[in-house]
Amino acid sequence: MSDLVWIDGTLRPARDAGIDPADRGFLLGDGLFETMRVTNGTIPHRTRHFHRLCDSARILRFPTLDMTALAQGLDTVITANAIVNGSARLTLTRGIGPRGLMPPTKPRPTVLITTQPSPARQPGAARLHVSHQIRDGASPLSRLKTLNYLPGILARMEAADIGADDGLLCNAAGRIASASAASLIVLTPEGLVTPALTEGAMAGISRACLVESGLVREGHIEPDFPQVSAAWIVNALTLRPVGQIGGRSLSLIPAGTERLRACVHPS
């Protein structure tokens, strides 16, 4: 994390940023976040991120967001930390509240914005593992970036236990929904496919760009990956080819990787 953060309208050193012990995001995971790519000092898909954040806040019944203030906060932190290429994360909680599950009648959300420069080296081809964790495609929460990421955390830990880089989560029907924090794309004889949102996939910004462009279509992906010859995992920050799923090796297609990257991560 960079040295300066934006918290509730104030730029301050990260070491001095405090969260109230009664904050519902800390106590109950009652919050949302957006991780955004920064390229040449700007956020390429900021409008899409803001639309998703507003839609998610409405579903969780948060107060109406001041998007002008959030945009100012993002610009302020990116400039203050001299982030040219990297990422910005906007974390929003319902704020402090009384003990118990019911929120206050007039919540005052907590806003935290942090930044991170790009890593010195990009990771190579990923090794994936099909996790025991489940994503519930019937729940609207499966499409939101909430502060509860425990299934993804457990899937990533399972993968690390066997020397893999990431875990793939299935839905209740046993089909692939997503990676722990990324969308999955596979190459089949019919073209590029990603799980549908109803399968439990996260409503990813990069995923939406690929589907809208016509490069990728929505469909079902079975966990034995029949007729799949290549795959990628993608989110706002990375597009990574997959070299192996379980004990099965997949083809690496550099031209395909660059075509997908040009759509989701414009320079």
UniProtKB/TrEMBL annotation:
GO terms for molecular function: 4-amino-4-deoxychorismate lyase activity; transaminase activity. Pfam families: Aminotran_4. It comes from the Bacteria. Keywords: Aminotransferase, Transferase. One of its GO terms (biological process) is 4-aminobenzoate biosynthetic process. Gene3D superfamilies: 3.30.470.10, D-amino Acid Aminotransferase, subunit A, domain 2. Belongs to the class-IV pyridoxal-phosphate-dependent aminotransferase family. This is Probable branched-chain-amino-acid aminotransferase.
